[in-house]
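FIELD: query
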Amino acid sequence: MYKEIDITIVGKVMEVDVTGKLTKEDYGQLVPATDKLIKEHGKIRILFVMHDFHGWSAGAMWEDTKFGLKHFTHIERLGIVGETKWEHGMAVFCRPFTMAKMHYFDASKIDEARKWITED
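FIELD: result
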């Protein structure tokens, strides 16, 4: 299965584009970038964009849980962009695990998502 993770940072906004299935190793790239951004800006914003996304491996789910607990108050906005109903459901499921203002966007609304994540 093809898999890719791409992280773009502009100011206090991190856009994470994911294709395939996230693994524990992907968090080795994601966590340091997030920690550095939080150190620089305090509170940050994340736009998580999924293309042909197949979820998380068991190891990645554990890393994601630790990530959420560590950064519970550091993320002020979390935008999730997806292509399927289960990805929308995942966004609803994540709400109790963050203080972030969250919003789900269909993949066709990527421009709207990018505008929302950056506006004050």
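FIELD: remark
The two ends are 39 Å apart (CA to CA).
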